[in-house]
Amino acid sequence: MKETDKWLVVVNPKAGTGKCEKDWPQIRELLVKEGFSFISVLTEHQFHAIEITRNMVNELGFTKVIAVGGDGTLNEVVNGIFQQTRFATTDITLGMITVGTGNDWGRMYQFPLKYEKAIRILRNQRTFIQDVGKVKYRYEAEDKSRYFINMAGMGYDALVAKKTNLMKAKGKGGALTYLFNLVTGLFQYENVQLSIIIDGVEAVNDKVFSMSIGICRYNGGGMMQLPKAIPDDGLFDMTVIRQTTKMRVVRNLKKLYDGTFISMPEVDTFTGKQISITSTPRHSIFLETDGESLGSSPLDFTIVPAGVKLIVRKKALKAFGKQITEEEEKED
């Protein structure tokens, strides 16, 4: 079947606690104005964006995709790209219009929230090939796997994400909701005994409060959990916050947002290509990827180097040491 020159636009109307549904007519009009030829499909349920992307690429040959929504929408589209079998994943160009509550992937690349600016960046199609993470986990007595493009959180981080997602389902969301759950979740959470093996070597065997593994730097609506992450170095970055007190967490919340928390004595940082995590009890640590609550331990992470081709702002690449010309920066 012939490939198509049109864009596939996957729209999550529930993103941004319903903001996407309200703003989609404006976004659609701007895409037409900027000369995009596209077919748009609105998601109807969780994981629908995976199905839409996989099927439309396989059956109709789309090689250009735009996700309209939040980090969870982008995550599903990436998983659809990895589930399709027609093209190499890096033969598909992926762009995003951020309309979510966290927008942490977009924050990494300084993507504008104004739709007109975001669409002009998409039109220029300046691409960057980024690593992707894959995690195997346990869900309702079954082994599952998921790709992710930004960050995975475990322990306390996953609890906060779960509480926030439950509130989103009730129409409440945003960075303030996440901050609220960040504080109130402290009274529900207990540190968990973990063994963490990185590239075949045990790096941690201790009680752990929270941890993050990822490719990019931000999650939770702007927290810099992995401040040294480079998205194309072929390595995961990982931060582990060992057992700590509730008051110490509250007193140091600001450090989570500026990345300086990694200098605290109970925080360790690592890099690696493969990370395995087991807990005692066995299924006692929970997982979220790109803000979406998934399952529990045991967990196995594998990096997929140079896994996905993304449209980005070139000037944002300077933040992690990439060389760009003055002309490229001005064009952004």
Estimated share of beta-strand residues? 25-35%
Give, in order, the helices and strands. Answer: EHEHEHEHHEEEHHEEEEEHHEEEEH
Task: Give the helix proportion (percent range).
Answer: 25-40%
Poorly predicted ranges = none
User: What is the CATH-assigned architecture of the largest domain?
Assistant: Sandwich
The number of domains is 2
CATH class of the largest domain: Mainly Beta
Shape: globular
Explain what this protein looks like in three dimensions.
The two termini are 36 Å apart. The radius of gyration is 19 Å and the shape is globular. It folds into 2 domains: 7-126 and 312-331, Probable inorganic polyphosphate/atp-NAD kinase, domain 1 (Rossmann fold); 132-305, Tumour Suppressor Smad4. α3 (71-83) links the parallel β3 and β4 (93-98). The protein is an alpha+beta fold. It has 10 helices and 16 strands. The protein has a 6-stranded antiparallel beta barrel.
Task: Outline the secondary-structure elements.
Elements: E1 7-11, H1 19-33, E2 38-42, H2 48-60, E3 64-69, H3 71-83, E4 93-98, H4 104-108, H5 115-124, E5 127-139, E6 142-148, E7 151-155, H6 156-169, H7 175-184, E8 192-198, E9 201-214, E10 218-219, E11 223-224, E12 236-242, H8 246-251, H9 253-258, E13 267-272, E14 274-280, E15 286-289, E16 292-311, H10 326-331
Parallel strand pairs: 1-2, 1-3, 3-4, 4-16
Antiparallel strand pairs: 5-6, 5-16, 7-9, 7-15, 8-9, 8-14, 9-12, 10-11, 12-13, 14-16, 15-16
Helix pairs in contact: 2-3, 6-7
